[in-house]
Fold:
Amino acid sequence: MKDIPVSETAVPDDRLTGLPWPKTWNGAYIFVVCHFVFWIVLLVCLREYCQ
Amino acid sequence: MNELDIAVLIGSIFSIALYGMWHTRNRKDLDSYMRGSDHSPWWVIGLSVMATQASAITFLSTPGQGYLSGMSFLQVYFGVPIALILISVFFLPIFHKLNVYTAYEFLENRFDTKTRLLGAALFLLQRGIGAGLTIYAPAIVLSTVFGWSLQWTIVSSGLLVIVYTVVGGTDAVTVTQKYQIGIIFLGMITAFCMLIGKLPPGLSFGDAMHIAGGFQKLNAVNFSTSLNERYTFFSGILGGTFLMLSYFGTDQSQVQRYIAGHSLRESRLGLLFNAVCKIPMQFCILLLGVMMFVFYQFEQPPLFFDSVSNKYMNTQRSDQKLVALESGFKSAHERGKHNLETWMHAKHDGNQAQAASAFIAAAAAQQEAEEIRLEAAKELSAKNTDIKANNADYVFITFILRELPHGVIGLLIAAFFAAALSSKAAELNALGTSSTMDFYKRVVNREATDGECLIATKAFTGIWGIVAIIIALFAQLSENLIQAVNILGSIFYGVMLALFLVAFFIRRVGGTAIFWSALVAQTLVFILYNSLTISYLWYPLIGCVSCIILSLILQAILGSNQKPIEEYTA
Structure:
């Protein structure tokens, strides 16, 4: 029987991130948004604290 | 620079370029030349996207921006996370599904040939000029500071990047960017650590942050609603999102980086990596500038960091007014330094009242020094109209040359060149690909074989490289470097983005309506840019919204769009 190269059979599973966490794309997007909000809060705090 | 610096500079820059050529020596087919080797992991794609955006200008000019204006410039990047999420959700799946070489191929599928050619032409025009600035910007600073010939700096760095980009294509760009960004990070981290080590004894990092905050250098978020303020939270979120959506979503130099991923997942993760890292990265670069500001409160800074102004100043020693301004600047700085030392001791001794009064006096002295600097700049420009004191671009390089040891100087100059080459290579690669696929194969020779297209791409990449060198040789900038590049993008990106947003989301609009609307909207942006004084961050928004509204009106006049488009819309 002829071996089929892995690249021809493996269909990339684009529905999951492939990361240990976050596993789903929605989770990844929420993480990015939370990270952004965290930085805005951090920058505002930095401005207020170091005045 | 001494021999050690030159060895570090030449060793790192040439070894990366040679490695790029050696690594890609067997790439002979069109697909791998244009889209890469198809096995780049997400983090390599992420670094490639990051290196493409972060040119030498980012690392030369942004710390100076931090020094002069504080953290407010960070707001330009507030649109990055939102824009990259939108691209990951809507743009990427369609680019991957259609397996395109250029973003503009999609416009032909969705609309028609003329709209594809318009999108590609706007890209080539804007990016062609941008490539010239990318090479001119570091060359003008480095040649002025080191006394090198500007022409030779432009030509030699331009030719080096042309050679390895023409030889290796997308793969050479991606492979070299990985190491170039390593050199850049190493250089910037080294500079930051050495700067912190050079702060006066007894001044902690917390004290330095308090000085920066007290002098209004940490105002990274400004909630003002004024349209005339260049950087605010709202211009960053609204205008910045449109600017970044246009740049990452429609500029072939970026699209070509992330469609190099072998799957949608790798491309998406590469983009989200940037969505997370961009703001912290820019924060660190600006913080470097802010810390230089603190450092120069205790060390005498030059009246002008701009070496052209400084040299001219030295020829004007007989001018009593300029000499008086210089001596006033020095004495204001000395007063400020003395008051800050008093503040530091009083703060550590717990004497809050003395600390507060000393800080107020220090802030007043610093304000006076800045006013003197501005007056001296005006005086200098009045005497010689060719002199425009442009401190932002020269602050960091002045600090490097005055304060850092040999070896580290070479490393940082290598970092600037690495950044210049990495973004320039990506631009040339994209210009060559778009010229071939959108014009040569589509208009000139529709039956071209892959072999002919490969030769054409290499030829166009080389031609664009030479065009960029010629533009750089004749360039003149009135803005500081980092702002000039963003302003150029802002003028073109709004309309380019509108082409894609209408394509994805407004099914009823067809090719003729969007084509003419784009032309009218682009003309409108040119007119407004020349007549209004609003922040440049608003122009992508204005261009995009006006183009969309015009296309809807025009389509209503023309009647419904009959082309089947389900496959190409989100």
